[in-house]
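Moderator note: this is an archived Q&A kept for reference. The question asked for a predicted structure of one protein chain; the sequence and the answer are reproduced below.
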Amino acid sequence: MRIVHVADTHLGYSAYRRVCDDDCAFKGLNQREVDTYLSFQAFVDRVLELRPDAVLHSGDLFDTVRPSNRALAFALEQLVRLSEADIPVVIIAGNHSTPRIRETGSAFRLFEHLPNIHPVYKGAYERITIGDLTVHAVPHADGEAFKGMLPSLTRCGETSYEIGMLHAGVVGFKEFRMNEFNEQIVDSCYLRDDLDYIAMGHYHGNQDVAANTAYSGSIERFSFAEAGQKKGFLCVDLETRKRKLVELPARPMLDLPAIDGRHLDPASLMAEIEARLDRDLDGKIVRLKVRDLPRTTYEALDFRRIRDLAAGAMHFEPRFEIDRENVSIQAGAATINSLEQEFVSFLERYPVEGVNKDALRAQGLEYLKRGLEGSD
């Protein structure tokens, strides 16, 4: 028996300001949102070619509890393709798609009427039988409700093959977690070896956890921590217990080697930046970090030149970490710092939700520099 294991598709995710261009079927939409759709469509295409006995989606089908109508319609369209091909699909809710208040309702209700589609989202363990396969499905839930479901991950003996499904981090000999506010963490002792396979979701890297347990990883890249990861889904042979990562196209990410700006003058630093950016950046998401940068060197940089060098990137994120400890203040001078220092200090002191603080810092410093240049 062959099954496909996928997770963390995060349909509807969006980031940055780039929109899909004119020759794209999703013209005018956020490019990163479109990336999640294209990856999921490519996944369904491959499943239809492979024709497995079942597909297991281990959580976070959507990026939010309240996905847009567009994300819902797209997911429904793709699941209908699998339903009509008579390929059973089990989908458990992850932390991104589970409402904190039960009365909020779940988008998964839309899929209940589809033949062959089994959504598990009500905060309770469900056992699903598909031919000679039993699926022990544990959706995301808060607190003790989640812990109370874990003992159900054990063999019942009703079918030849039995699989567990979880959306959680794991602690034990190694730790796999995303450090999100409402993630659940499972002790490795609950990953029972009497099951033929345990399909994990939540951790975005493809990772073996135990002989019978693995994370498939996400099918798209969502942070620079995933820059070097291969993306795709797992094809698992339950008889031989062998699994293989089937790669899918994903947006390339480059987290360039950081530059130590401590002892570099502006010309030398620009030469280092040019060397880092002298590569194929077309369509990629790129981050460049410069650490311990004296403020005077930062102010002398040619930001227009830096932007031009990275013009081909889908998104370019320069991150300049200003060395404020070495800024000299004359005795008797006012204690008010420069605008740049005050801005950086403000960001460090106050939480900013829903925004990449490093990107906000870099962009804010650049805007301040432009304003100061314009006032000269």
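Archived answer notes: The longest strand covers residues 285-293.
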